[in-house]
Amino acid sequence: MHRDLIDDVPVLWADAPGPLTAALIFGCGARDETFRTLGVTHLVEHLAMSTLPRLHHEHNAQVDLELTQFTATGRPDQVVAFLDRVCRALADLPVDRADRESGVLAAEDGCAAHPTAGALLTHRYGIQGLGLAPFSGPGPDRIPLDAVRDCAARYFHAGNAVLTLTGPPPPGLRLPLPAGDRPDRSGTQPVLVTASSWQEDTVPGPGLGVHGDLADQGLQLAMAVLQERLREVARNQRGLSYDVSCDRALAGPDGGDRMIHLDARDGEEQQVAELLWQQAVLLAAEGPSAEEVAEEAEGTREFFLDPRTVALELEFAANAELLGWSYRSVADRLDLLDEVTPEQVREAFARAMDSALLVVPIGTRPGARRADGTELPEGGCAGTAGLPAGGRTFRAPLRDRLTDAGARRARLVVTGEGLWTRMPSGGVHHIAFADVVGVEVHTPGRVVFGRNHCVIPVMPELFAGIGPALTAVDEAVPAELHYPASAFKNAD
Ligand SMILES: [Zn+2]
């Protein structure tokens, strides 16, 4: 891998077959946003791309949780022209087009991660950083223009960019980006939940996430073995699933989450969830066989020695450079992989299973047990103690209480510290005012989103005489966190 510097942007390149492919990569993604500004990085990307004329060579742009990339494949002169245009657009963003592009974003309805991976990350981190993954937030038409300008200035500059190329830099290549300081990436996002638990969510199928060192080869191999075993049992033997996927998310230089998720045939969610958990517990207890480890190592070797993965490897190195973790070459990684023993894989996975989160589709009861035989507890706000003493209490409208036992149980309690609600099902949720990440304004009514992943509707359909509750929310939560419900109606 070669390294150059063009206009203060590091350029990583290596020869690969086929036409020249360039990726201008910025070290920012959805995890750098807040609930209130969700989608702002994607909007910056769209605004920049909207300045391009019609191009006949392959080109694209994308935002994931960690990185934003602008990519082009074509003749060297086409790639040079593309990069020049993108850099100029980012340096002078056409913010006046935000209205139109937000409509395009709403139509695209893109997400920064697979919905099941996103749900796992929200259960792990709450509605912040990586945990923003499954949300669309207030909606693309509610992103403040100041947030667009701020995002562009903070992240889209030469100090936060790396260019990768599958060949030497072509003559005339310039990257006219503004100068800037690379954001500090030394910190690691703290987790909300460390102990193992299960939770239901609106996911297409069950998923399992563990928290740990992403550089740990044992853990990486364990996930690959688990994926292969699930493919064999859930897909090949029992025909319950089609897709079994692995995912990862970086919380900081020290680690993050590795996740595995499956789809489930309609009506088979329960079986697939049980299978996923049982296979994970079995792998943590007994470890893989020597053949399985050798098989996965061989697969990895073949993948990375394929010349077509050069672009991917360059992206990997750029990711390391931008996000502050140490890059190891393919050769070094493969050497390390060869040294991993089945027992190391088992140990790494058993350790990681202490932090396992199992997410299942709504209505699924996995009945899972930990390795020590204790029941895997239900996580999230199911653990919130009862309603507080004192505070102002609101009940369901009288007509609902007369006809519905659930409505008789429902409560909203407002204190100086925050909101509590008891659902018709009996579960209690709580959001401290200090932890509110967004207030969706309806006329009348408010929907309050909490950092802890609770969402409390303060709506007249649910509670009678809520005027004082609305006043309390509006007074306690800063005005900049309030927004009118999106005209696109796609807020969560
Ligand atoms: Zn809750």
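qc> The pocket of zinc ion is lined by residues 381, 429, 454 (CB under 6 Å).
qc> done
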